[in-house]
UniProtKB/TrEMBL annotation:
Belongs to the THOC3 family. InterPro entries: Tex1/THOC3 (IPR040132), WD40/YVTN_repeat-like_dom_sf (IPR015943), WD40_PAC1 (IPR020472), WD40_repeat_CS (IPR019775), WD40_repeat_dom_sf (IPR036322), WD40_rpt (IPR001680). Keywords: Repeat, WD repeat. GO terms for biological process: mRNA export from nucleus. GO terms for cellular component: THO complex part of transcription export complex. It comes from the Eukaryota. WD repeats lie at residues 22-55, 66-108, 191-232. PROSITE patterns: WD_REPEATS_1, WD_REPEATS_2, WD_REPEATS_REGION. The keyword Glycoprotein does not apply. This is THO complex subunit 3. It holds the Pfam family Beta-prop_THOC3.
Amino acid sequence: MSTSRVDELINYFKSHNKIREQQSHSAKVHSVGWSCDGKLLASGSFDKSVCIFSLCPDRLKQETTFRGHGGSVDQLCWHAFYPELLSTASGDKTVRIWDTRTQKCTANISTRGENINISWSPDGNTIAVGNKEDLVTFIDARVMKIRAEEQFNFEVNEISWNKDSDTFYLTNGQGCVHILSYPDLELLHVIKAHPGTCICIEFDPTGRYFATGSADALVSLWDADELCCLRTFSRLEWPVRTISFSYDGQLLAAASEDLVIDIGEVETGEKIADIPVEAATFTVAWHPKQYLLAYACDDKDTYDRKRDAGSLKVFGFAND
């Protein structure tokens, strides 16, 4: 990518670096995500609730709060092409599906452990959910029934699918990415991606690349076909907890316990912008159609430092 494009992006964020904050939870926000059409943003929290916001031109507006989980909502993800469907993974040993049109829970699937991560396949047919005991459960999203379970004998961190939904990826505590075929769940490849724990994984919207974040403070970018590492992003100093590609695949946001969220240009690795934060950041998500980044930090209440702020923020609104 030309230097002019990098300069364009840097200049864009100089005039689009306004942050909007929403305080809607009573405890830490674990996960944020945009609906596929970008009209809604969801947040899941330790307070057992899910909040839904609509996007206005210059801010967010809270629409509704979903309650029903009996434990922390650790991760959420939306359906790839039905913008009203949201899935949530909770420590209460269930996966729930919510419909924003009816504002109700439409399915409640019991699983065998406390769930910590979830990934909905791009074809919409399968929801994979991982628990604290490294068991991954595959739910057929068409009938909301468990189709398969796979127990791993190592620490499973984050899970993801390729663009065609026929291979399943997971990151582990030994710094590896395991790639399995789906639905047969046969091990195809093990990539030794990092010397430290491999924490998070994300595919870019084109399906050409995936990125991994690790305890070694690096983000590595991989060619999804060749399974070779193309480059690393090394501006953070703490374990990388969360990463997200922009809608066009040109930007990669990464966050950690550093007091900054790093935004790099994918083709060159160059820094485009950073977002100053006051606490560790555990979730980031780019909007599916524009350069807006939702994120949530381990912020404390302004007046009572022992209490979580329960807030989420969106960066990238036009400056006044």
